[in-house]
Specification:
Length: 260
């Protein structure tokens, strides 16, 4: 048996005659002797699981039979250490990595990018000799490099070999306007060796690089490009200022709370 004390008071409004009821006020449940006796009796009447010998438990486990104690032990807390196995996302990622590792990719382009004019001249000679089997050259100053490609097949072989060995891809637009091997050298000198193309990637939307010097009209303004390194540096500086500002606000709040 339990007792709950409930107090219910009425108060009068000064400028009115109607009574206003206050909210109910309850206190915590206070158990009496009979409640304690009832609980104690229920604990004594609870079925006790008899202890079993180790050999008997082993036989039950081997036979697949589950005892009551085993069933009770199956209720575990939902904590990470009580879970066995991996998450579905981890399994999918591992399976994807396994599949990718078994695929043989044809890496036709070199990872080493041409970095100087001497190496570029060597690649031009190799590309010419590869695409012109019956006509060989040995110097980058040979006048044969100034002649136009005889057909598209020769141009394709020359371009493919030069891209594969130089590690640089040439855009479709450049492939359309470049008609002589010597023009390829000029393109590499202006775009690759000068470092101009290092600012962006041809496959990305921001591949067009514009400068204010290219436009003389006063109503055209080009926003200067900001490289990734500068962007990250500025971002870290802003985040540091934010953290310092938050720390200062927290310090002042603690001082005000201590004074009050």
């Amino acid at each position: 048996m339990s007792f709950i004390r409930i107090s219910h008071r009425l108060c009068m409004v000064k400028n009115g005659s109607l009574p206003v009821a206050r909210a109910l006020h309850t206190t915590h449940i206070s158990s009496d002797f009979f409640s304690w006796f009832k609980k104690k009796k229920a604990e004594e009447n609870e079925a006790k699981v008899p202890a079993k010998e180790t050999t008997e438990l082993i036989k039950e486990i081997e036979s697949g039979k589950k005892s009551k104690s085993v069933v009770n032990n199956q209720k575990m807390k939902l904590t990470p250490e009580n879970f066995i196995g991996k998450e579905p996302a981890q399994l999918d990622r591992a399976e994807h990595q396994r599949i990718v590792s078994e695929v043989k990719f044809n890496s036709w382009i070199s990872k080493d990018i041409v970095s100087n004019e001497r190496r570029l001249d060597e690649l031009l000679i190799e590309s010419y000799n590869e695409s012109y089997p019956g006509d060989k050259i040995s110097a980058s100053s040979d006048t044969k490099l100034d002649a136009e490609f005889p057909d598209l097949v020769t141009k394709f072989k020359f371009t493919k070999y030069l891209q594969a060995k130089s590690g640089c891809l040439i855009s479709d637009y450049k492939l359309t306007i470049l008609n002589r091997p010597s023009q390829y050298k000029q393109f590499f000198m202006d775009e690759i060796l000068s470092g101009k193309q290092a600012r962006y990637k041809e496959a990305e939307p921001n591949a067009i690089h514009l400068t204010q010097e290219r436009f003389t009209s006063p109503n055209i303004y080009i926003i200067p490009d900001i490289d990734v390194k500068s962007q990250n540096k500025k971002y870290r500086k802003i985040m540091q200022e934010v953290r310092l500002s938050e720390a200062e606000i927290s310090r002042r709040a603690m001082e005000d709370a201590a004074r009050s």
